[in-house]
Amino acid sequence: MKQIPFTVPTQGTSPRRLDRGSSEDFPSAGGLSEPSSPNVKRPSVEIPGAYALGSIDPSLYKIVDEDDDYEVPPDHIGRIWFAVEYERETEKLLVTLIKAKHLPVRQFGNNSSCDPFARIYLIPDERRYLQSKFKKKTCNPKFEESYVFQVSYRSLQDRVLKFTVFDVDRHKRHNVIGHALYPLKDHDGESNERLVMWRDLDREVAESGADKGELLVSLSYNNHLERLTVGIFEAKMMKSEGGTPGDFYVKICLLVQNKIVKSKKTDVVKKSECPNFNESFTFKLPVTQLDSASLSITAMQHSSGHKDKVVGRVILGSFMFARGKELDHWNEMVANQKEQITHWHPL
């Protein structure tokens, strides 16, 4: 492959493929130190299969140190550099947070009045995260830390990496500076190559892509029978790849502690952008597992002779797995035993 010199453009992103390193590229977690601030501690790693690896070998990423000067756009709140690599054989996503530059100062004219750290989320599970070390008095922190997420190849395209950078002020408050997203559908999961890239931080980010449609879902729980009933009634604004009405079905997976317990699916509804499924499914779920359970409801497009494609997904569950309206739906079900609780959910 022809080598292209690394230059930072004035806008956009600049991924670069680097040669795959040896096993020493990502050292063990033994070299990982705790953040300096008592109020900025690393969270206990609750994400199944996710953990911090520790410091990286900076020589692997010298390519990103040649960009110290770049044209700072108006209203710029910082830029971060990171690397992503997916190991297809082990289904491990290796994420390296390299550095950030030009983070805003709390006091104008004082370049050291920023104490940043970063959190890395794997959307849609934004309630849990991995956290970087805490850096003191710098607007240009070098993190050089690596992390691992366990992600199956089939779900890779539905996940999004989210980086959130914080500043810890003199009162130990965590103030959000900005966010950056990297949709993993943009990543070649089969190449086993490491991509180094940058993103400009935004104050607000749209965590979902284009509108993929909505599902009307009902939940009901009978604590005496320990039975969860899921109703899949209808969908609207379903988008097919060809732009014509497609053939759709819905797959429902019950997970306990992120492990699939049971999977079921609806019949295929053909050639409709607003398919009516009108099916319900029951799952055995003990009361003791309500707080560790979740539902992954996936809309699929069926293609004869080809692999079925994921249209979008909704995660309903307890506070450990869901947030927003999806969490509210689950909590409403738990609080209203034996009642059918129905809501629309965007994919």
TrEMBL record:
Where do the TM regions start and end? none
Pfam families given in the database record: C2 (PF00168)
What are the protein's UniProt keywords? Repeat
Q: Which Gene3D superfamilies match?
A: C2 domain
The organism sits in which domain of life?
Eukaryota
Span of domain C2: 76-199, 211-331
Residue ranges, annotated region (Disordered): 1-44
PANTHER family hit by this protein: SYNAPTOTAGMIN, SYNAPTOTAGMIN-15-RELATED
Instruction: Spell out the protein name for this chain.
Output: C2 domain-containing protein
What organism is listed for this UniProt entry? Answer: Tegillarca granosa (Malaysian cockle)
